[in-house]
Design a protein that fits this description.
This protein has 12 helices and 9 strands. It is of the alpha+beta class and about 425 residues long. It is elongated, with a radius of gyration of 27 Å. About 0% of the residues have low confidence.
């Protein structure tokens, strides 16, 4: 396989992925500041602060269920609440219910437990509509655009293929920045612009690839931006490419490849397979299961040597008959979005499984770092700015790549015509 072969691979792979990366780069630069933008666009609804403490989430859950005896609430947020923030509960219908099957949101005064007028119906995610764009749906639209071009499953696959090709092309593109081992003529290496002098040593010849000749022609400037821009950000580009495969092609590509090199938790049927029939009324009720989960997590922390930093959620999965206690620990990559998980049996209250994001399996550690890096969950504002700049760089690389291809096509046309 000659160097020119890899030039062609890079060129035509780039043409396929250019549009996807342009969209992903620009939308990703916005999503780097998702939480800040969300707080600005959709500030929390509040009531006047009171001297009495806010009701705990389990009490508010029970009050919501009392208002809808044919519904289920299988998730409770345990994260710290802001003073006076209205508490919202999502009630989902039981499968046996003959009433309206749409999930509903009920809003509560967190101090008194009184409902706040304006109960709303929560549309299923598949039926979300983004026109007209509003303050409420703008960021969800950007997320869908970034993830699937708002095309649903088809868009996820198209982006997944692009991410897989991008990962491979990262290595191809890096190889093409290296100087040839020996001098080649333009006839045998037609993609070269001002090839470096082969009499210089390797590092002297390669350093040209890291520079941009701002006073050169438009074609030379775009070529340098494409080559040097890719080199200076190469490691981050690879991180975002492979993490995109993780997010879009988990089952068909990411998991099989990662399992070849590392131990990785497979969440299919994890920690147990689904029950023959869903269990909606477990022996250990929701409130009683919570202190059991805390005690089991305390025992696991002592046994495995980690520290619980904050609580996030408490959930019940009727398909498995398990409660899930979700916390942040010092084994998490991000202190703001933990993924340390403990499962307990809803019939007996017995410990079932513990998942720690790092320090147990190499594949899990790598995967959780990839997710945190991709979603700007670490490093605070400086890293968010870096992610924004990387997104803009990805868009720039797409534009310059297409520009260079068009110039080559134009030159070939003029040569043929002449």
């Amino acid at each position: 396989m000659t160097r020119y072969f890899w030039v062609l691979v890079h060129r035509y792979t780039g043409l396929y992925i250019a549009f996807f990366l342009f969209v992903a780069g620009l939308s990703g630069s916005v999503l780097a500041f998702y939480h800040e933008l969300d707080a600005w666009l959709n500030p929390l609804e509040r009531v006047a602060a009171q001297s009495s403490p806010m009701l705990d989430p389990f009490t508010l859950r029970e009050r919501a269920l009392a208002l809808n005896t044919r519904g289920q609430i299988n998730s409770v947020s345990l994260a710290p609440r802001e003073v006076g923030a209205i508490y919202t509960v999502v009630i989902e219908p039981l499968p046996s219910s003959s009433e309206d099957n749409s999930p509903k949101i009920i809003k509560f005064n967190p101090y008194t437990g009184e409902t706040i007028p304006g109960q709303t119906e929560l549309a299923p995610a598949s039926s979300l509509r983004y026109w007209p764009l509003t303050r409420q749906n703008f960021l969800p639209f950007i997320v869908e655009l970034h993830y699937s071009l708002v095309l649903g499953e088809i868009g996820i696959w198209l982006f997944g293929i692009a991410a897989t090709l991008w990962t491979v092309d990262c290595f191809v593109g890096f190889y093409l920045t290296l100087p040839p081992l020996k001098k080649k003529s333009p006839a045998t290496f037609p993609n070269t612009i001002n090839m470096p002098n082969p009499q210089r040593n390797f590092w002297q010849r390669w350093q040209i690839a890291w520079k941009i000749k701002w006073r050169g022609s438009n074609q030379r400037r775009n070529f340098d931006l494409h080559r040097a821009g890719g080199l200076w950000t190469w490691l981050m580009l690879l991180v975002f490419a492979w993490s995109s495969v993780y997010l879009n092609m988990l089952e068909p590509v990411y998991t099989p490849i990662m399992k070849q090199f590392s131990e990785l938790t497979d969440f299919n049927d994890y920690p147990i397979a689904d029950l023959p029939r869903a269990q909606y009324a477990p022996a250990v009720d929701f409130r009683a299961a919570y202190p059991i989960a805390k005690q089991l997590m305390h025992e696991q922390a002592k046994q495995k040597g980690f520290t619980v930093l904050a609580e996030q959620k408490f959930l019940y999965n009727p398909l498995k008959g398990l409660y899930l206690y979700w916390v942040v620990t010092d084994r998490d990559v991000s202190a703001s979005a933990g993924s340390s998980l403990l499962w307990l049996d809803a019939e007996s209250g017995a410990f079932v499984a513990l998942y720690l994001p790092t320090g147990e399996k190499t594949g899990d550690t790598i995967t959780n770092w990839l997710g945190a890096l991709h979603m700007a969950r670490i490093g605070g504002l400086p890293y968010q700015i870096l992610v924004c700049l990387i997104g803009l760089t990805v868009a720039m690389l797409s534009v310059t790549g297409v520009y260079l291809w068009l110039k080559k096509q134009q030159a070939a046309f003029l040569k043929h015509k002449g």
